Amino acid sequence: MKIKSDLFIEKIKKLYIQNPCYLSSIALWKTEKMLKEANTYEVIDQDKIYLYALSNNNLIFYWSNQLDDFILTKNEISNLDILILHDNFYQLIKDDLVQYKIDQMNPLIYKGNQESITLHEDYLIKDFDFNNRADFVDAAKLINEVYAGHHHTEDEIKSWMNDIAFDPSLWFWIKEENSNEKAALAISTYQASVKKSYLDWIQVSPSHQKKGLGKVLVYETIRRSIDKSNIIRVTGITDEFYKTCGFISQDKWWYIKKS
After folding, report:
1. What confidence tens digit (pLDDT) does each residue in 126-141 have?
2. Quick one: CA torsion of 214, 217, 223, 229, rounded to 10 degrees?
3. Burial class (CB in 10 A: 0-12, 13-18, 19+), 57
4. Distance in angstroms (rounded) separating the CA atoms of residues 79 and 170
């Protein structure tokens, strides 16, 4: 049965608080943002519960208390362009996904002990200046330089200030002290309604890498968010770097796209 997205979001928020890494591979606020534009469904059959959401022929959310059956038929699955699934649900239908490209996602959760690393003496940490256009221009430039295939603009970076989880304290630079060159940038978010922090954009300029600046960004973000957060996460497709910073993998997710 199709239900209103607001009601659907309230249902998944309760589940998310219990087990965030099992419910979503990305930040809850990003999931909510997608769901507001999606068709949301709830199916209840005695003690069986299924919650799923479709948007532009994509299965963007799926959860059930059943681990032995999948609510969508084989034909319905074959008509989808993209599926985002927790491993438990992926295992139920993986044999039906022969025409799809499948990428693993590893959302991570912080379980460290507030580790720290000494910032190299040539560098210092500076808060992002939201009144300075150059900071937005340079943020877009650095992100595009570090992440191949990204084409962010100054206006797009500015638009992130409108997100429900925008937290100005989690935007900061590492600058080279003598030249004032912007060497690294952290942009993270905090969702107060669930007391969760999410590391979103952690990047170091190629000319300043191999100096421990990436870990400084991570540890400083943790320091700024840990007192107000009951969970700190890295979401999406992650790498081993974060595991060296005290993050662990709890759940396996799959991004499945039709070839």
Report:
1. 999 999 999 999 999 9
2. -100
3. exposed
4. 41
Kindly report the average pLDDT of the chain as a whole number. Answer: 95
For residue 61, the enclosing domain spans: 2-105
- Residue 250 falls within a domain, yes or no? no
In DSSP terms, 254 is beta-bridged to: 85, 104
> Can you tell me the distance from the alpha carbon of 117 to that of 102, in angstroms, rounded to the nearest whole number?
36
Q: Which of 82, 105, 128 is the last residue of a domain?
A: 105
Closest CA to 182 of 225, 221, 139: 139
The candidate with the shortest Cα–Cα distance to 187, out of 157, 230, 223, 164, is 157
Residue 14's alpha-carbon distances to 50, 84, 188, 250, in angstroms, are 15, 20, 23, 19
Euclidean distance between the first and final Cα of the chain, in Å? Answer: 30
Q: In sequence order, which residues have a C-beta less than 8 Å from that of residue 230 and are 6 or more positions away?
A: 195, 196
Residues 133 and 155: their CA atoms lie apart, in Å, by 10
Angle among Cα 10, 1, 194 to the nearest 5 degrees reads 10
Q: Identify the residue whose tokens are 């139920």.
A: 92
Asked, for residue 11, whether it belongs to a domain, the answer is yes
- Is residue 219 within 8 A of residue 116, CB to CB? The reply is yes
Structural domains counted in the chain: 2
User: Which one is predicted more confidently, 103 or 115?
Assistant: 103
Last residue of a domain, one of 80, 105, 130: 105
Measured distance CA(151)–CA(64) in Å, rounded: 36
Contact in structure between 254 and 104 (CB atoms under 8 Å): yes
Helix ranges, the chain (H): 5-18, 20-23, 28-35, 74-78, 87-93, 133-146, 154-159, 213-225, 240-243
Query: Which tens digits make up the pLDDT trace of 211-247?
Result: 999 999 999 999 999 999 999 999 766 678 999 999 9
